[in-house]
């Protein structure tokens, strides 16, 4: 029975992951995550299997089902990698979660009901799905307060939707609820006409898209939790109009911003957010003048903002196309298209290498330079799916008719089978440039892990990309200048560390940043080698001088030496005194180094002289004079403090002490 359970889970996971699903906390990805983690726990606790057992079943599944589903043979190694990585991630918290839950169950007494807060923490902190927690609870003859769990989940979801605990103040102030929409329908308020949203005209002289103003009428005004017929100046509100030219936030693309003008051409509303609710477009912001329902107004979209968003959205399509070329089995997992950047989440197990990033950069910028025209067409969904290499969001529910956006080939050409040559083709409802040349330049600025098996790229386009390129060139010049400096200076290491931090903080091309990091690292290694070589030479030279002085003062068994030209380098002093001690092991040696108002004292005493004198006692004689700090043992000591008396007095004190102890 136990082996059949594991086999069933392995079959399901192999098929789903091959089909593009990945463990996630949303939609179908969450189903995959739940089943995978349940299988991992079952294998560990019921069968006591080693790590990797679940993934090792993938080739067996491929062998048994590959005849009926040949696509399973395409990349089983990738499926195994996904399973192993998710298992590794879960095992980090599996034991902690078990201990946490068992502790609470043991403290229940006769209550026999685990609180929803505990169940939610099992999910939120330890990665246990509610199904898995519930299963463990039943195994221990207790139940879970599911109502309380759902309440905790709802609260967490609200906080997340508002950008996290730290960003709750940024939550959307104006929105339409289900009751609001029902009320609008009962009052026969028509849904918003959005035909003007995509009507733009490109101006090549300014490299901007001009969106025509739309004259319309206010149908409803929402403030807080109620509809009103009129608002005064300075009120946070939202208006619904008969028609609009504003793009609503959707599909990862941010909403348009702009203004609403009244009949006197005065701004009556600064639009900062636009959302669509069952066809009703709500333009939200702060009112600048009095507004009333039935007022005639003019909607004016910020063309500069829209143009930047269009560039970034089109660049996102080109990026997706490039990723398919570089990582054939990847799939899109999310995106954000804003005016200042684009963000793209995609499935891949390992970080992209510098070579992969460079290839993506080259592909996208070549497509931009080729000046590929954009084409858009609405076609039936089943027809769209016949287009080769069509990109669509996995698991997303589409309508019967979909909007197809291409760069390079026209939609009709692709539908007729003319697919020769490169062409980006996606299902998309967003706004785009007319030609890829409008994007001007594309630069990837960062790469990071987003979740298990999903990575995130951020990039910039247009003028900002050119600015980012300049930033990188400045940092390159700084690194080149640093490479030409004297290499045996410890100060240069601090400068290189500072430069490395500056490079990390600079918004610049990620590939260039990785190259500069490597160059700085190589430069630091070069400096460290030079410093070590210089350090050894200094130690050897000072030790030679001291040994020469010791030999000239034989048969004295001790030697006090002042090094006034050593600047506050305790490590160097220690190496010198140790080297002298090795070369003249029968001599007690004290080195004194003066640096402005500071003094450092190092001493060594051979074992054969310890009965007469100890190094820490000798050092304490100096410490009483300088009132400093330090420590030591019979064989060695070190002290440091401020030089408040002439150095000759310190030398005399050291001499007076040891001369009475050692002949």
What shape does the CA trace take?
elongated
Total beta-strand segments = 25
- The side-by-side strand order for the widest beta sheet comes to 5-8-11-10-9-13
Poorly predicted runs: 163-170
- Distance from N terminus to C terminus (CA atoms, Å) equals 89 Å
> For the residues shown, what is the average pLDDT?
88
Helix share bin? 40-55%
The share of residues in extended strands comes to 15-25%
Q: Tell me the radius of gyration.
A: 36 Å
Largest sheet: 6 strands, antiparallel, barrel
Give me the number of helical elements: 19
Structural class: alpha+beta
What topology does this entry show?
Layout lengths: L1 H17 L8 H19 L7 H4 L1 H8 L10 H31 L6 E2 L1 H9 L5 H10 L3 E2 L1 H16 L16 H9 L13 E4 L4 E4 L2 E10 L2 E3 L1 E2 L4 E6 L16 E4 L5 E11 L2 E8 L3 E2 L3 E6 L1 H24 L5 E6 L4 E6 L6 H16 L4 E7 H4 L16 E7 L3 H5 L8 E4 L14 E10 L2 E8 H22 L6 H16 L4 H43 L5 E6 L6 H14 L4 E8 L2 E7 L10 H12 L2 E4 L3 E7 L4 H13 L4
Parallel strand pairs: 1-2, 21-22
Antiparallel strand pairs: 3-4, 5-6, 5-8, 5-13, 7-12, 8-11, 9-10, 9-13, 10-11, 14-15, 15-20, 16-17, 17-18, 19-20, 22-23, 23-25, 24-25
Helix pairs in contact: 1-2, 1-5, 2-5, 6-8, 10-11, 14-15, 14-16, 15-16, 16-17, 18-19
């Amino acid at each position: 029975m136990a082996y059949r359970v594991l086999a069933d889970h392995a079959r399901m996971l192999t098929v789903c992951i091959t089909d593009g699903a990945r463990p996630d906390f949303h939609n179908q990805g969450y189903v995959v995550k739940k089943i995978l983690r349940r299988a991992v726990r079952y294998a560990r606790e019921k069968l006591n299997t080693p790590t990797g057992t679940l993934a090792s079943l993938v080739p067996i599944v491929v062998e048994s089902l590959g005849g009926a589903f040949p696509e399973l043979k395409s990349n089983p190694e990738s499926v195994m990698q996904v399973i192993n990585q998710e298992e590794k991630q879960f095992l980090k918290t599996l034991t902690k979660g078990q201990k946490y839950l068992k502790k609470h169950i043991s403290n229940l007494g006769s209550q026999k009901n685990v609180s929803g807060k505990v169940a939610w923490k099992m999910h939120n902190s330890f990665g246990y799905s509610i199904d898995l927690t519930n299963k463990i609870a039943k195994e221990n003859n207790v139940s879970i307060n599911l109502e309380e769990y759902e309440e905790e989940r709802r609260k967490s979801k609200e906080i997340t939707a508002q950008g996290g605990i730290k960003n709750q103040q940024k939550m959307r102030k104006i929105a339409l609820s289900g009751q609001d929409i029902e009320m609008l329908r009962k009052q026969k308020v028509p849904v918003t006409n959005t035909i003007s949203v995509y009507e733009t005209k490109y101006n090549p002289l300014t490299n901007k898209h001009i969106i025509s103003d739309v004259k319309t009428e206010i149908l409803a005004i929402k403030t807080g939790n109620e509809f009103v017929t009129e608002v005064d100046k300075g009120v946070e509100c939202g208006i619904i109009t008969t028609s609009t030219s504003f793009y609503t936030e959707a599909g990862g693309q941010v909403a348009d911003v702009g203004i609403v003008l009244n009949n006197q051409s005065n701004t009556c509303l600064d639009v900062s957010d636009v959302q669509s609710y069952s066809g009703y477009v709500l333009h939200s912001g702060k009112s600048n003048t009095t507004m009333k329902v039935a007022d005639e107004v003019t909607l004016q979209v910020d063309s500069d903002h829209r143009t930047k968003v269009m560039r970034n959205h089109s660049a996102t399509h080109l990026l997706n196309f490039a990723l398919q070329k570089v990582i054939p089995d990847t799939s899109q997992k999310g995106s954000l298209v804003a005016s200042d950047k684009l963000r793209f989440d995609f499935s891949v197990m390992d970080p992209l290498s510098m070579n992969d990033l460079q290839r993506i950069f080259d592909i996208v910028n070549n497509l931009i330079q080729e000046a590929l025209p954009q084409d858009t067409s609405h076609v039936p969904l089943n027809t769209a799916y016949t287009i080769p290499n069509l990109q669509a969001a996995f698991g997303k529910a589409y309508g019967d008719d979909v909007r197809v956006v291409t760069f390079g080939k026209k939609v009709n050409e692709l539908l007729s089978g003319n697919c020769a040559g490169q062409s980006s083709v996606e299902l998309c409802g967003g706004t785009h440039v007319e030609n890829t040349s409008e994007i001007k330049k594309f630069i990837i600025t960062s790469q990071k892990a987003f979740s298990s098996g999903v990575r995130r790229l951020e990039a910039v386009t247009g003028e900002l990309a050119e600015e980012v390129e300049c930033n990188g060139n400045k940092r390159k010049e700084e690194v080149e200048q640093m490479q030409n400096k004297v290499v045996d200076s410890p100060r240069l290491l601090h400068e290189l560390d500072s430069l490395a931090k500056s490079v990390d903080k600079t918004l610049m091309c990620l590939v260039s940043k990785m190259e500069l990091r490597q160059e700085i690292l190589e430069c630091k290694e070069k400096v460290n080698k030079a410093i070590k070589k210089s350090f050894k030479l200094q130690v050897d030279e000072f030790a030679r001088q001291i040994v020469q002085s010791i030999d000239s003062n034989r048969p004295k068994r001790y030697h006090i030496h002042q090094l006034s030209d050593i600047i506050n380098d305790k490590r160097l002093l220690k190496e010198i005194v140790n080297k002298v001690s090795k070369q003249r092991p029968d001599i007690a040696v004290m080195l004194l180094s003066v640096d402005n108002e500071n003094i450092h004292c190092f001493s060594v005493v051979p074992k054969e002289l310890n009965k007469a004198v100890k190094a820490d006692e000798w050092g304490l004689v100096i410490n009483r004079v300088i009132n400093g700090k330090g420590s030591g043992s019979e064989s060695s000591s070190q002290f440091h403090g401020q030089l408040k008396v002439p150095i000759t007095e310190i030398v005399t004190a050291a001499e007076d002490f040891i001369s009475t102890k050692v002949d």
